[in-house]
Structures are given as structure tokens and as C-alpha cells.
Design brief:
globular, 42% helix, 219 residues
């Protein structure tokens, strides 16, 4: 028995993948295509994607939000987990990066579930609130510019129904959040992590998976 999270060396990490990951062929192909991208480190891991898919299914989610699409792996993961009438509101600003994922969305048969909006995410989220969509979403995944995380969190909390879930990526930031820092991204994450700890509007868990994943359930 262990009283703390186990460290994963390469061999043990590969074992985790070998015995647990059930990756759709188009997810595997998109992950492979992204591996040589100059910003490949922005890609979530397959085990993290599988966790997101499981959470979406457990929520019986129909309407979801993604902030930060990159090449589209997480959007594809969530879209595959949604029922036929499910939708992903996918927010990003890069046509170049998101275009990488579109053929994989098509081949996986879920492109119609992904509503990609190329605009600043706050603009898109505020438009949803102005259209009366508060409390109408089930799940949100935040994985974009770190200095914007707090604003994204606040908008998503309004858009989610009671019992809805927000997943926030990179909350450990390679371990940098545990040390004093003047870096704007690191400070933003440190501030948000402390805010979430004390936020009575949510139930909270911070998981040491990938680069750290916070789960915040709206009460």
C-alpha cells in the first residue's frame, strides 16, 4: 500500500497504456500526426483523453465546451464519447492548428458533433451567456492560455448546469506551481489553484495525471 501517488517510470507508464488505453484508430492516427508538430507538447496524453471520455459518459453529457482545441485530439475524444445528438462547442483562434484535426473528425464520423468557433474564447462564451445558455451545458474542458484560465473558469461555471463538470488541464505546470515564480503563466495557475481550493461553489479534485488535471463539479 502507498500513502501517496506512485511515480511512473517509462516502463510502468507504458504498462499503464498497454493494459488500459482503448484508443479509437482515428485518435491514434491524429496523435501520431501531431507528434512531429512544433507544439506537440500541447497534446493531451491518451490516458487523459480516455479519462475525459469516461467522465463525459458518466455525466450522460449532451452539450460540452472545449477551450483550446490545438489539433483536435481532445475534441475528437469527447465527440466520440457523446451520443448522436451531443455537441462540442470548440473554441480556438487558430485555423492552422485546428485544420489538422478536421480530416480525423470526418473519418471518425463525428465532425457534425463539433461546432468549431474561431474567435477569442471569452467572446464565444459571453455570446453563449447573452443568448440565455447559462446552466445548459454538462461538461467543459479548459486547455488554453494559462493567464485566461480564471476568466474561462468563471464563464464555464455559469454555463454549466448543477452537477456539471469542469476539467482544467496543466494545473501542475511541470511542477513549476510548487515553487516561487514571477512567470505570468505559473502565477496565474498558482492563483487559480488556491482559488479553487476555497471555492464553495464546487466539489474539487486535482489529479496528478498528465500535467495535472483539476476536476471541478458545480454544486
Amino acid at each position: 500500500m502507498s500513502r501517496r501517488t506512485l511515480n511512473l517510470d517509462d516502463q510502468l507508464y507504458q504498462y499503464v497504456l498497454d493494459v488500459s488505453v482503448r484508443e479509437h484508430r482515428e485518435l491514434a492516427a491524429l496523435r501520431a500526426a501531431t507528434r512531429t508538430h512544433q507544439h506537440a507538447g500541447m497534446q493531451i496524453s491518451p490516458e487523459q483523453g480516455q479519462l475525459l471520455a469516461l467522465l463525459v459518459k458518466m455525466l450522460d453529457a449532451r452539450r460540452t465546451i472545449e477551450i483550446g482545441v490545438f489539433t483536435g485530439y481532445s475534441a475528437l475524444t469527447v465527440a466520440l464519447a457523446l451520443p448522436e445528438d451531443g455537441r462540442v462547442l470548440a473554441c480556438d483562434v487558430s485555423d492552422e492548428y485546428t485544420a489538422v484535426g478536421k480530416p480525423y473528425w470526418q473519418r471518425a464520423g463525428v465532425a457534425h458533433k463539433i461546432d468549431l468557433v474561431l474567435a477569442p474564447a471569452l467572446q464565444t462564451l459571453d455570446a453563449q451567456l447573452a443568448q440565455g445558455q447559462a446552466g445548459r451545458y454538462d461538461f467543459a474542458f479548459i486547455d488554453a492560455d494559462k493567464t485566461g484560465y480564471d476568466n474561462y473558469y468563471e464563464r464555464c461555471l455559469q454555463l454549466l448546469r448543477t452537477g456539471g463538470l469542469i476539467a482544467i488541464d496543466n494545473v501542475l505546470w511541470g511542477g513549476a506551481v510548487a515553487r516561487p515564480s514571477n512567470d505570468a503563466d505559473t502565477r496565474s495557475l498558482q492563483t487559480l489553484n488556491l482559488k479553487l481550493r476555497d471555492d464553495a461553489r464546487i466539489d474539487l479534485a486535482l489529479l496528478p495525471i498528465g500535467d495535472g488535471l483539476t476536476l471541478a463539479r458545480k454544486r
